[in-house]
Amino acid sequence: MDDLYREVIIEHYKNPSYRGHLDPHDIQFADNNPLCGDHIEITLQTAADGTVKDARFDGHGCAISQASADLLVESIIGKPLDEVKQLNKEHILDMLGIELGPVRLKCALLSLKVLKAGVYGLGEASDSLVE
Amino acid sequence: MLNVNEIRKDFPILQRKTHDSVPLVYLDSTATSQKPTPVIEAMDAYYRRSNANIHRGVHTLAEEATAMYEAAREKIAKFINSPSARQIVYTRNTTESINLVAYTWARANLKAGDLVVLTEMEHHSNLVPWLMLQSERGVELEFIPVTEDGLLDLEAYKTLLARTPKLVAFTHMSNVLGTINPAADIIRMAHEAGAVTLVDGAQSVPHLKVDMQTLDADFYAFSAHKMCGPTGIGALYGKAELLEAMPPFLGGGDMIKEVKLRSFKPNTLPHKFEAGTPAIAEAVGFGAAVDYLTKVGMENIAAHEHAITEYALERLEEIPGVKLFGPSADKKGGVAAFTFDGVHPHDVAQILDRDGIAVRAGHHCAQPLHEKFGIPATSRASFYLYNTKEEVDLLVNGIYKVKEMFG
After folding, report:
1. Which residues of B are less than 8 Å from A63 in CB distance?
2. pLDDT mean over B32-36
């Protein structure tokens, strides 16, 4: 179990650094995981050079979904949006440092799905964004 | 009382280990029950010896298969004290049974503005079919409220009945709160107001002795897989005069008496509602499950579950941070849904799983009920004839572990 609930995950879940809502923002997107009711909203401010100036996440859910969101937001601040568009599930799994079964993978990838749908300006977040 | 150690020997899966070496503690029977050897063997024997398509065949295997399929129906009818086997329609599950009523009886009898009364504790399977009918037909839906302690507000129900609903559809036992609703009273009151009744019996038939002739329900839906039988088969009980008057459901083979290029005559009950080759082996397994439960005795099962549930609620209540949902043990079946402060139910379930403890986490297909209590999800432990007090202790120890991890 210690492999799944590594200290980094519990820490980011209990004391997230990037929980919040940016106002004003340039990009905003939110979605649920219908299986478990996890909810994530991401707000982003962009800089003139096409990088992420600042970002925050908000929502509720399990430790995996909330810690992933905190780690993800931390990892994209200062990055070019073009680079953010290329992020895939490996990025999340590398940061979490764990392997996940199909059910919990959905929890872990919810924030990335929300982020990419927002950055691409899509109306709907689909699973294909994070495969 | 039943001998739980003997019962456990009947369920081969309970011997298995998870995560290499941890014994399985299966506390998820409300989602689906495990299967005893007699059920597994009955289905295996059917495929090894008697497999054939039913009804039209005249050869030996077809006759055997037909006899087995129909014998199971007789057993199921007797199990719920249906006046006859022809009032038992095989379906895929409770959901399909409810949809059958929604697509046939309801579409033939309900029009815009007609009132359908449901409850706030329904599983999505007894809510979404009526929401679909609402968008299609403009029927109105009202809900019997659930009180803070997880019971139906029967005073509010009386007020709704004054509006002369056409249908009252409700669950006999909540899959989240465990509440056993006073079904006979609800049905009697509905009938006095002139309404037809449909009962979701998915959780009640596996755990309680139910009697169609005492309850007087017009329709009663249940699934085999929650009562020691296989997945893929369920049943709809209906009053004969209602079933007779209803249009057929799916069209195809076996549901017809006569077909011409431009017309058909539907078959008699119950075949009128059973189009196409059905789940024959599953029906045989369903019959074996009913035999098994009858042999153990439904009163014994209910008493055993009551003892386990009472103990579980008492032990869970002791844990600081645990909040239980639903009424006290005397008003509920073997279900304990709870939240644990600061930890999401999914994390609780995942950490318990590492100790081999299988509980469910989520909204358990009852999202509106969770919204009512202001929570997105719960963890749910549920108990059946094969669970023990020792397993409850393991659950409680597991929750203390969660507490330690999330500190």
Report:
1. 343-344, 347, 406
2. 98
Q: What percent of chain B has pLDDT over 90?
A: 93
Give yes or no: B365 in active site. Answer: yes
pLDDT digits (tens, 9 = 90+) for B336-359: 999 999 999 999 999 999 999 999
User: CB B363 to CB A61 under 8 A?
Assistant: no
Taking alpha carbons only, the member of B96, B166, B168, B98 closest to residue B137 is B166
- The residue of B19, B124, B346, B372 whose CB has the most chain A CBs within 10 angstroms, and thus the best one to mutate to test that interface, is B346
Contact B362 A35 (CB under 8 A): yes
pLDDT digits (tens, 9 = 90+) for B296-337: 999 999 999 999 999 999 999 999 999 999 999 999 999 999
| Residue whose token pair is 């050897």 | B37
List all residues 6 or more positions away from B219 whose beta carbon is below 8 Å from its beta carbon. Answer: B97, B101, B105, B196, B197, B198, B199, B236, B237, B238, B239, B242
The one catalytic residue among B319, B343, B365, B396: B365
Cβ separation A61–B344 shorter than 8 A: yes
Give the CATH number of the domain where residue B71 resides: 3.40.640.10
The residue segments making up the domain with residue A90 are 7-119
Query: Any idea what the CATH number is for the domain that residue A25 is in?
Result: 3.90.1010.10
Record the tokens describing residue B226, joined without a space: 């929650």
Structure-token pair, residue B401: 């572990």
Domain final residue, candidates B251, B273, B295: B295
Question: Are A5 and B361 in contact (CB < 8 Å)?
Answer: no
Residue of chain A whose alpha carbon sits nearest to that of B350: A1
The model's pTM is 0.93
